[in-house]
Design goal:
This protein has 65 residues and is mainly alpha-helical. The longest helix is centred in the C-terminal third of the chain and has 12 residues.
Length: 65
């Protein structure tokens, strides 16, 4: 099951920019975003790590730190 994100020329759905997009969304909508993540007992760092693990084949612990 792959993420439903298609790469586009503008880069908006490019998973390589997912961290940037999550950070911007978190900055602009902090309360909403934190409440949504809290439902799953997650925080922004965990979500970014999960996204990288899901989208990259050769990943090590150093890449996540």
């Amino acid at each position: 099951m792959k993420m439903m994100m298609k790469k586009t020329n503008d880069g908006f759905y490019d998973y390589n920019r997912l961290g940037d997009l999550l950070f911007i969304f978190h900055k602009n909508h902090k309360t909403y975003f934190n409440n949504a993540l809290a439902k799953y007992d997650l925080n922004l760092i965990q979500v970014l790590c999960i996204a990288r693990i899901y989208n990259e084949e050769n990943l090590n612990q150093k890449d996540l730190s």
